[in-house]
Write a structure and sequence with these properties.
mainly alpha, Farnesyl Diphosphate Synthase, 73% helix
Amino acid sequence: MNAARIWLQATRPRTLPAAVAPVLVGTSVAATQDVFSVPRFVACLLGALFIQVGANLSNDYSDARRGADTEDRLGPVRVTAGGLVPPKAVLTATWISFGLATVCGVYLIAVAGWELLVVGVASIAAGVLYTGGPKPYGYAGLGEVFVFIFFGLAAVAGSAFAQLEDWPIEAIILAVPVGLLASAILVVNNIRDADTDRRAGKNTLAVKLGREKARTLYAVMVYVAFLIAPVPWILGELGPWLLLCWLALPLAVPLVGFVRSHTDGPSLNEALARTAMVQLVFCVLLSAGVLLS
């Protein structure tokens, strides 16, 4: 495997739609008020991607140091634990990625307001402390909660604020389904790794609940996301076009069954990628529905 492919693997490209999706939704909410700045949108998009990549690299580095990524794990080989990249190089790449996210954040703070400083600092801190630091929250079963907060609430509402310099209620409501689907990606990841995580002392939610209950949680997250999406229409804030996102149900329903019926690593790796794609399709359709409303 050449160096470019190794570094691409380190970024975990299957998870990157989770960074793009909330920016689309938040920006579409702002556009309903006839506000859209291309530079602000690009800065939000790049900032979210760099934070996601930085978090993935930080997780790769920290899990290797803690012994969580062993040879018998079912997921793809991690570059640090697998000896593909020296730990120092992964750590350097982590901070370069967070540094680039900071550059995007500085621009957004300058043009939109200091509130985004809080969002940005908290997001980077969450990325580092997921499996790093003295008490990583990912080892205490709180990973899904933080993903919901930072790849749902913070990312959607923050993207809307970057355009409007305000916190529209529609963005906050629509952040809930976006965050649930982002968290569902992590649930699949942790279902796959439950056995090796348990041996390494990484008490993810899947370890605490057990695989069967974690699969039920996954189903609830996916289906509740579709149920909440029309709420701004029900409240009269937006129109029935929000139901466009339900066109993603034919992708989501069989996937829930697939996750419930498969336990092998390759199948759950596929499920992870398919969950990320469901989230992206859902959010593209939801954004279109917002714009048409």
